[in-house]
């Protein structure tokens, strides 16, 4: 036996090259050192591609715009960009001109983004919940129904935009005429994609179509992690289907729903691509639209300031969520 | 070759000391149990032998080689885990041969060793099963085979039977002992079950609060516990304790007196001591006359009676009211005694008992250290347990 | 696959009992039937609403372009040639190929980095763990636009580091998969962190005692055991990249040979060939196809993957 032991030891020590030297070095690191070693590639990538650009943009937000000339950015101006954007002083001079019948581009962007987030996230949560409840049942062909219902979530944004463009483009589709006949009296336009209020609703509709599926997916995952035997307990206790939904299903998936809503709110508050592909940023100006449109006229300082204002608004929403729902668990 | 030596090993986490200055020497081929309540540091001690945890201070030697800073793979140890820890994505063969394959053994050698190990643990013909297709006992055997196949210097077993049902546990206990007899490899075995430790090991290391309390053969731990903790931990049901103090005439407490000459035992009047006596060393007064050196009669009243079949446990009250304190059993006024199954006892009955002076333990109440293990006159110099490694220092 | 609902079969069996009144009668006696009926109505509603937009693309794609005007619910004519023309008018297959390769590269990078990071976050307690996780989460608060200008300058060789100008990545895959990786990394890290945290410590210890290094234990035991989580992270990352709009749109000039992804293929039809609605629709359908296949194959994995872990923290 002892001879065989020594073979094991020689084997395990064999191959003493640079590689095993490095292995030995790594093995002897303590937990914290080892943790940071493994995080190095991640931190490197995030550092260069995310954190450095953010810091760089942050600095830019304190610098003047430099529309002409070789320099991309002007001198340090402190909080001027922020004050200019928030107070409305930049309205006519700096921000591309207006949309949505509101005097200030920034406030209209804020309102557009707010309306978009509130309406789309609420509907997506409700519809996604409904879809998840359907998919949580056992029935013949469930697999295919599930594929159909979650499919929109996977559809590229640019194609989603294309679809709704084709649905609401007068001349191509029956919808614009039909809607005009029905709702023209209420101010619905014959060319809805160039009317700010109509286009906003259509963008919201497109978003609901795609993103309800995402909510359904997350909520379905939450539903499926509910212990099935709880339903049997409820049944034995004489609960109706509605009662067992109200008393078991709903409270147990609520944390999941809240997390999903949080994810969705963060995403929705940054809406840009969908607007760009379906309507345009001048028709439906969201906050992200404002960043890109100031950016594209080389007002980098202003663009950077708006980007950080957007992030700050999102951070506020997230904090409110977390503080408000911490007690519900999950978030 | 498979000796293990821990020298001044200490493991501190940010605010707790899990293992405090542990010194243990385990000889080649020995079966040693590390036993103690949960959180006492026994598992941490084993993890430091395995290399899964690195000690803050001190050194670890295995097979004469210092391994303190070596990763587990280079220590020549194999381990069986409490949760069995079979790789669920590998079949039995792959599980058993995992370590050999990592070490690039040749296929023939791997096959030969796996077959042999499977035979030892009676798993022939099951090599292509997946872990989730097996019963708890079979899985445990795979885990053991995985450990023996590498022919390590030392086996480490971390509560390997804790997750099995009672019947299987007893069976596997015997199998492990047989295996140890056959392989003659050093085994370090962690358990919180003192009965397991008593039955299996050559020596028991009792650990509490990160400190080694005593390391001795099982019967020595039972008969000559080094301190109050060991006395209370080893043996089921536990030893009875009565707190009191030494007088000119011996021991006195609120409920009972035991006469002896203090000068014979190195104590003097006024010392605070705790008297300990095991349930089987207390006799009803009438049958106690047969033992060689009984104490005087102690008047009690029966409380709860628990017939076990082969014996009867009787809880005796030393006064009218029940005063139990789980935190400090020595402060209670109960005595537990064990009597033969044919004894005629009823609840709430007066009963006088005597203690066997040969089996009375005295402990220093303050330090907990044992003073004496018998009150039959013997030279005062006999002192405490006098066994190795037991002096836990504070 | 999906276990077949006993109730479904039962209720369809008894439908033959006769007539609307009989149905109402039995529904009252048996409220389950009413639930079932409502359930199917709701399900069909969801199916119609989710699938109709795709059907709309199909109507437009098979209708000859000169027939497209005020289209209703049925195609006018049948012209499958549009599905071929899509590839000849623009190199649409190249755009798709680019998207595919970019998604694959990104997925591989993200899985490797997120495995290491998820392992660390899930299984180690070290100084700065909470702060780092928060930092990674915080990155997702920012609109992509906040990264754009510095990245754009970096990728066009306008940043100097120690006297060397940054590599010219604009119009190369690097300008795309680097931001894709960085932006999809946090989600993958959170998914894998929860999965890896659930693997019992004993298995990792066992692997190490048996002879692996710590990293060996990760890749031999923890990753294989978290296969559903890894698959979930992989599918989500792949779909995320295939979906991505912002950087896909802005980090290349739009030519297929410069690694422009599918975004540019679709926008090409919406811009240059803006009158070719049938081609637009056909391109849209073709673009959906690979991702639809992925969803068909992986939907079970995605749901069970999310169920098993991702949402518990």
TrEMBL record, chain A:
GO CC terms in record: plasma membrane
InterPro entries for the chain: MetI-like, MetI-like_sf
This protein's UniProt keywords: Cell membrane, Membrane, Transmembrane, Transmembrane helix, Transport
Family: Belongs to the binding-protein-dependent transport system permease family.
SUPFAM superfamilies per UniProt: MetI-like (SSF161098)
Bilayer topology annotation: Multi-pass membrane protein
Presence of keyword Cell membrane: yes
Pfam families: BPD_transp_1
Domain ABC transmembrane type-1: 110-321
Name this protein carries in UniProt: Carbohydrate ABC transporter permease
Transmembrane segment boundaries: 34-55, 109-135, 147-168, 199-223, 244-263, 269-292, 304-323
Compartments in which it is found: Cell membrane
Organism: Halobium salinum
Major subcellular location class: membrane
From TrEMBL, chain B:
PANTHER family: MALTODEXTRIN IMPORT ATP-BINDING PROTEIN MSMX (PTHR43875), OSMOPROTECTIVE COMPOUNDS UPTAKE ATP-BINDING PROTEIN GGTA (PTHR43875:SF1)
SMART domains named in the record: AAA
Chain residue ranges for the region called Disordered: 374-394
GO cellular component: plasma membrane; transmembrane transporter complex
Organism name: Halobium salinum
Start and end residues of each ABC transporter domain: 4-234
Keywords: ATP-binding, Nucleotide-binding, Transport
Protein name: ABC-type D-xylose/L-arabinose transporter
The reaction(s) this protein catalyses: D-xylose(out) + ATP + H2O = D-xylose(in) + ADP + phosphate + H(+); L-arabinose(out) + ATP + H2O = L-arabinose(in) + ADP + phosphate + H(+)
Stated role: Part of the ABC transporter complex XacGHIJK involved in the uptake of xylose and arabinose. Responsible for energy coupling to the transport system.
Subcellular location: Cell membrane
Membrane topology: Peripheral membrane protein
A GO MF label: ATP binding
Keyword check for Transport: yes
Family: Belongs to the ABC transporter superfamily. Carbohydrate uptake transporter-1 (CUT1) (TC 3.A.1.1) family.
Biased composition (Low complexity): 377-394
Family matches, as Pfam families: ABC_tran, OB_MalK
EC number, UniProt record: 7.5.2.13
Signal sequence extent: none
UniProt-listed InterPro entries: AAA+_ATPase (IPR003593), ABC_transporter-like_ATP-bd (IPR003439), ABC_transporter-like_CS (IPR017871), ABC_transpr_MalK-like (IPR015855), ABC_transpr_MalK/UgpC-like (IPR047641), Mo/tungstate-bd_C_term_dom (IPR008995), NA-bd_OB-fold (IPR012340), OB_MalK-like (IPR040582)
Lineage: Archaea, Methanobacteriati, Methanobacteriota, Stenosarchaea group, Halobacteria
Quaternary state and interactors: The complex is composed of two ATP-binding proteins (XacJ and XacK), two transmembrane proteins (XacH and XacI) and a solute-binding protein (XacG).
TrEMBL record, chain C:
Cross-referenced InterPro entries: BP-dep_ABC_trans_perm, MetI-like, MetI-like_sf
PROSITE patterns reported for this sequence: ABC_TM1
GO CC terms in record: plasma membrane
Pfam families: BPD_transp_1 (PF00528)
Transmembrane segments: 37-62, 100-121, 133-155, 175-197, 218-242, 277-298
Gene3D superfamilies, per database record: MetI-like
Keyword Transmembrane appears in the UniProt entry: yes
Location(s), subcellular: Cell membrane
Record keywords, A-Z: Cell membrane, Membrane, Transmembrane, Transmembrane helix, Transport
Similarity field: Belongs to the binding-protein-dependent transport system permease family.
PANTHER family noted in UniProt: INNER MEMBRANE ABC TRANSPORTER PERMEASE PROTEIN YCJP (PTHR32243:SF18), MALTOSE TRANSPORT SYSTEM PERMEASE-RELATED (PTHR32243)
Full protein name: Carbohydrate ABC transporter permease
Species this protein is from: Halobium salinum
């Amino acid at each position: 036996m002892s001879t065989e032991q020594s073979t094991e030891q020689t084997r395990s020590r064999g191959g003493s090259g640079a590689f095993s030297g490095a292995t030995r070095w790594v093995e002897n690191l303590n937990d914290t050192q080892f943790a940071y070693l493994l995080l190095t590639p991640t931190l490197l990538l995030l550092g260069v591609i995310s954190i450095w650009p953010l810091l760089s943009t942050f600095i830019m937000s304190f610098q003047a715009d430099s529309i002409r000339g070789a320099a991309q950015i002007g001198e340090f101006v402190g909080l001027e960009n922020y004050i200019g954007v928030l107070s409305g002083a930049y309205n006519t001079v700096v921000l591309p001109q207006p949309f949505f019948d509101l005097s200030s581009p920034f406030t209209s962007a804020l309102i557009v983004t707010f309306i978009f987030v509130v309406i789309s996230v609420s509907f997506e949560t409700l519809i996604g919940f409904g879809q998840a409840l359907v998919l949580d049942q056992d029935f013949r062909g469930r697999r295919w129904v599930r594929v159909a219902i979650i499919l929109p979530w996977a559809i590229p944004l640019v194609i989603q935009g294309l679809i709704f463009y084709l649905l609401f483009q007068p001349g191509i589709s029956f919808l614009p005429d039909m809607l005009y006949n029905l709702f023209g009296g209420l101010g619905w336009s014959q060319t809805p994609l160039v009317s700010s209020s109509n286009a906003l609703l259509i963008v919201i509709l497109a978003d609901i179509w795609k993103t309800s599926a995402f909510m359904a997916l997350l909520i379905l995952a939450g539903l499926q992690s509910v212990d099935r035997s709880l339903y049997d307990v409820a049944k034995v206790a004489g609960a109706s289907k509605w009662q067992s939904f109200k008393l078991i299903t709903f409270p147990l998936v609520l944390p999941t729903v809240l997390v999903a809503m949080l994810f969705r709110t963060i995403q929705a508050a940054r809406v840009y691509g969908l607007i760009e592909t379906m309507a345009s940023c001048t028709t439906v100006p969201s906050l992200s639209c404002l960043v890109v449109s100031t950016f594209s006229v080389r007002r980098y300082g202003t663009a950077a300031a708006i980007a950080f204002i957007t992030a700050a608004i999102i951070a506020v929403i997230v904090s409110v969520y977390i503080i408000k729902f911490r007690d519900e668990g999950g978030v | 070759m498979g000796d293990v030596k821990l020298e001044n090993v200490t493991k501190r986490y940010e605010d707790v000391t899990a293992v405090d200055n542990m010194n243990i020497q385990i000889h080649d081929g020995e079966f040693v149990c590390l036993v103690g309540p949960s959180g006492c540091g026994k598992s941490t001690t084993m993890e430091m032998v395995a290399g899964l945890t690195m000690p803050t201070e001190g050194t670890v030697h295995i097979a004469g080689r210092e391994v303190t800073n070596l990763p587990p793979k280079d220590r020549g140890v194999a381990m069986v885990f409490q949760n069995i820890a079979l790789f669920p994505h590998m079949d039995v063969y792959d599980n058993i041969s995992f370590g050999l394959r990592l070490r690039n053994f040749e296929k023939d050698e791997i096959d030969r060793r796996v077959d042999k190990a499977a035979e030892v643990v009676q798993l022939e013909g099951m090599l292509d099963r997946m872990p989730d297709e097996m019963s708890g006992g079979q899985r445990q055997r795979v885990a053991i085979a995985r450990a023996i196949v590498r022919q390590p210097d030392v086996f480490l077993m971390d509560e390997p039977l804790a997750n099995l049902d009672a019947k299987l546990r007893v069976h596997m206990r015997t199998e492990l002992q047989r295996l140890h007899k056959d392989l003659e490899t050093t085994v370090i075995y962690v358990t919180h079950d003192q009965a397991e430790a008593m039955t299996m090991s050559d020596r028991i290391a009792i650990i509490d609060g990160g400190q080694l309390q005593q390391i001795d053969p099982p019967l020595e731990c039972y008969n000559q516990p080094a301190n109050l903790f060991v006395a209370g931990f080893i043996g089921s049901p536990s030893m009875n304790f009565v707190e009191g103090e030494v007088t000119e005439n011996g021991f006195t407490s609120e409920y009972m007196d035991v006469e002896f000459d203090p000068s014979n035992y190195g104590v003097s009047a006024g010392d605070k001591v705790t008297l300990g006596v095991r349930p089987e060393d207390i006799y009803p007064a009438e049958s106690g006359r047969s033992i060689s050196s009984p104490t005087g009669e102690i008047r009690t009243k029966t409380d709860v009676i628990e017939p076990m079949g082969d014996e009867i446990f009787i809880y005796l009250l030393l006064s009218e009211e029940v005063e139990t304190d789980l935190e400090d059993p020595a402060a209670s006024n109960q005595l537990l005694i064990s009597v033969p199954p044919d004894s005629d006892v009823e609840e709430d009955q007066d009963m006088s008992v005597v203690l066997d002076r040969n089996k009375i333990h005295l402990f220093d109440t303050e330090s907990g250290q044992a003073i004496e293990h018998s009150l039959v006159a013997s030279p005062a110099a006999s002192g405490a347990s006098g066994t190795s490694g037991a002096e836990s220092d504070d | 696959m999906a276990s077949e609902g006993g109730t479904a079969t039962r209720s369809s069996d008894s439908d033959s009992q006769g007539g609307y009144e009989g149905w109402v009668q039995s529904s009252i006696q048996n409220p389950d039937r009413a639930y079932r009926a409502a359930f199917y109505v709701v399900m069909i509603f969801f199916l119609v609403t989710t699938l109709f937009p795709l059907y709309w693309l199909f109507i437009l794609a098979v209708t000859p372009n000169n027939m497209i005007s005020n289209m209703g619910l049925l195609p006018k004519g049948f012209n499958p040639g549009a599905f071929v023309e899509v590839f000849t008018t623009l190199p649409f297959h190249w755009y798709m190929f680019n998207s595919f390769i970019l998604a694959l590269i990104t997925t591989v990078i993200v899985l490797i980095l997120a495995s290491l990071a998820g392992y660390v976050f899930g299984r180690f307690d070290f100084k700065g763990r909470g702060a780092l996780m928060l930092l990674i989460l915080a990155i997702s608060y920012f609109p992509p636009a906040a990264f754009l200008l510095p990245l754009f300058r970096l990728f066009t060789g306008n940043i100097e580091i120690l006297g060397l100008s940054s590599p010219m990545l604009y119009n190369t895959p690097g300008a795309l998969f680097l931001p894709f990786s960085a932006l999809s990394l946090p989600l993958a890290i959170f998914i894998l962190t929860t999965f890896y945290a659930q693997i019992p410590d004993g298995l990792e210890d066992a692997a190490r005692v048996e002879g692996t290094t710590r990293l060996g234990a990760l890749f031999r035991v923890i990753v294989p055991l978290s296969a559903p989580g890894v698959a979930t992270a992989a599918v989500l990352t792949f779909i995320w990249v295939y979906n991505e709009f912002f950087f896909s749109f802005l980090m290349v000039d739009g030519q297929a040979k410069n690694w422009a992804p599918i975004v540019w293929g679709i926008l090409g039809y919406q811009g240059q060939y803006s009158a070719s609605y049938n081609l637009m629709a056909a391109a849209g359908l073709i673009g959906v196809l690979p991702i639809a296949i992925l969803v068909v194959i992986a939907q079970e994995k995605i749901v069970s993957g999310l169920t098993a872990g991702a949402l518990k923290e």
